[in-house]
UniProtKB/TrEMBL annotation, chain A:
PANTHER family: INTEGRAL MEMBRANE PROTEIN-RELATED, MEMBRANE PROTEIN. The chain crosses the membrane at residues 21-40, 52-76, 97-124, 144-162, 169-187, 222-246. The keyword NAD does not apply. This is ABC-type transport system involved in multi-copper enzyme maturation, permease component. It comes from the Bacteria. Keywords: Membrane, Transmembrane, Transmembrane helix. The lineage of its organism: Bacteria, Bacillati, Actinomycetota, Actinomycetes, Glycomycetales.
Automatic annotation (TrEMBL), chain B:
SUPFAM superfamilies: P-loop containing nucleoside triphosphate hydrolases (SSF52540). Residues 2-227 form the ABC transporter domain. One of its GO terms (molecular function) is ATP hydrolysis activity. It comes from Glycomyces harbinensis. InterPro entries: AAA+_ATPase, ABC_transporter-like_ATP-bd, ABC_transporter-like_CS, P-loop_NTPase. Belongs to the ABC transporter superfamily. This is ABC-2 type transport system ATP-binding protein. Keywords: ATP-binding, Nucleotide-binding, Transport. The keyword Transport applies.
Length: 251, 243
């Protein structure tokens, strides 16, 4: 196996072998499916207007917070427990270790999100009765695919930030309020929307079918695939920062 | 062989390692001594490429640590034994290390056996005693069957049986032709284990001599007394009355 494959395989063992991985990913699944069940019962209400995709992603947007916590703590715990020293002694190439870590976190999140997202959508659909939409409609495929990609990217983004701060607490303290609480509220305020609408969580909402272009209050200036491109840019910037931080600093 | 040449590490607050030059030869146990804050751990971190030197170099077998492919097969290191994820088991800790360097699964069983940790393989790190964590640290260091061993305070927390075990292990490793560098502040232990001593104080080299010669040159005093005399100028922290 190549040196990178060895490093990535080691990172995968690390993720798998700590209890918090199973706990956080289970909580993510339980939240997403539970919300799907609850919200699925009210798809006919005015708020969702029979839109099963919106109802699905409402739950996933909340559950996403747990997913981000998983991604951040998987990096942060390496620093808080001191295992980063053993990791750097085993894989002295900083760039290789960083790439392996990001790849493992991204793969774990991607593997967790896809089945949960599909199951949540299936639950909402089964509860929607006549409101159910065809699985093969392009809008359905596009939204589910977009949701999968954007949640994975957001977690890699958060994990890369954690490499820069080297702390679970600091990363969550920065990311949760800015990106997930104020962002979702503040993104609707006209004076700051032109800027805030490009924050990663806002982009995620567009990609995940939570806003429709042209909506006077929730509408954004870009569509789903442009949104994914914006998220890729955010993630790339965070990866560059994390890579730089890891190369520059002492362990 | 470990070659440290003009190694210097400065931090914003001061100098931790100051123009240090020494060689650790294979085939014998080399003790690395110095008072607290002398720069032992920083030197070891520099040797392992964890910190970057301000100037100078540390080479292992003629190469900087960072350029060694599959470094665990060349150098085994025990740093802080407590640096473990609390909910990861002993076996899984060794497994990720093994995977990172392409070391086979079978070797995990062997080092568990060699360190007396086979019975604890499924224990989570948070349930281990300090002595067991030290044994796990030694198991991790032996994983790649390396020619160079660097052990930072390996006897901390070990019971008498463990102390004898690690002493025997280090001597056997050296007798097999490996390079063994062991830091400690337990003089009596070093007198029994190390054939050669490197003593530093305030980041500078104070002595690089065979243990016997070191003791003899201080008029036959015990190693402890010889050490105290040599380092008396470079002790940074001392209880009030001793000054």
């Amino acid at each position: 196996m190549s040196a990178f494959a060895n490093a990535a395989s080691a990172e995968w063992v690390k993720l798998r072998s700590v209890r918090s991985t199973a706990v956080t990913l289970s909580v993510f699944a339980a939240l997403a499916l539970g919300f799907g069940w609850l919200i699925g019962g009210s798809v006919e209400d005015a708020f969702y207007n029979g839109d099963t995709l919106s109802a699905t992603f409402m739950g996933l947007l909340v559950a996403q917070l747990v997913l981000v916590t998983f991604a951040v703590s998987s990096v942060g715990s390496e620093y808080s427990t001191g295992t980063i020293k053993a990791a750097l002694a085993a894989v002295p190439s900083r760039g290789r270790l960083f790439a392996a870590k990001m790849a493992a976190v991204g793969a774990a999140v991607a593997a967790a999100v896809l089945p949960v997202e599909l199951a949540a959508f299936a639950i909402v659909q089964s509860r929607a009765g006549a409101g159910a939409v065809p699985w093969t409609a392009w809008e359905t495929v596009e939204s589910l695919l977009g949701g999968w990609i954007s949640m994975t990217l957001l977690c890699v983004f958060a994990a890369a930030i954690a490499v820069m701060t080297r702390s679970t607490v600091w990363t969550l303290a920065i990311l949760l309020p800015i990106l997930f609480l104020s962002g979702q509220g503040l993104g609707n305020l006209d004076p700051i929307r032109p800027v805030v609408q490009y924050f990663p969580d806002q982009v995620g909402m567009v990609v995940m079918h939570m806003t429709i272009p042209g909506d006077p209050q929730f509408g954004r200036d870009y569509g789903a695939w442009t949104g994914i491109a914006i998220l890729v840019a955010w993630t790339a910037a965070a990866l560059a920062g994390g890579w730089f931080a890891m190369r520059r600093r002492d362990a | 062989m470990i070659e440290v040449s003009n190694l210097t590490k400065r931090y914003r607050g001061g100098t931790a390692v100051d123009d240090l030059t020494f060689t650790v030869e294979p085939g014998r146990v080399t003790g690395f001594l110095g008072p607290n804050g002398a720069g032992k751990s920083t030197t070891i971190r520099l040797i392992l490429g964890l910190d970057r030197p301000t100037s100078g170099s540390a080479m292992i077998g003629g190469r900087p640590y960072g350029s060694i492919e599959r470094p665990l097969t060349a150098v085994g290191a025990l740093l802080e034994a407590g640096d473990l994820h609390p909910t990861r088991t002993v076996r899984e800790h060794l497994r990720w290390l093994a995977r990172s360097n392409g070391i086979g699964e079978r070797r995990i069983g062997e080092v568990l056996e060699a360190t007396g940790m086979s019975g604890a393989a499924r224990k989570r790190a948070k349930t281990l005693s300090l002595g067991m964590k030290q044994r796990l640290g030694v198991a991790a260091a032996l994983l790649g069957d390396p020619g160079v061993l660097v052990l930072d305070e390996p006897v901390n927390g070990l019971d008498p049986e463990g102390v004898v075990w690690i002493r025997t292990l280090m001597k056997r490793m050296a007798a097999e032709g490996r390079t063994v560098l062991v830091s400690s502040h337990l003089m009596a232990e070093m007198a029994l284990t190390a054939e050669h001593l490197i003593v530093i104080g305030r980041g500078r080299l104070l002595a690089d001599v065979p243990t016997e010669a070191f003791v003899a040159s201080h008029s036959g005093a015990s190693l402890e007394e010889a050490f105290m005399r040599l380092t008396s100028e470079s002790v940074e922290f001392r209880a009030g009355g001793a000054r």
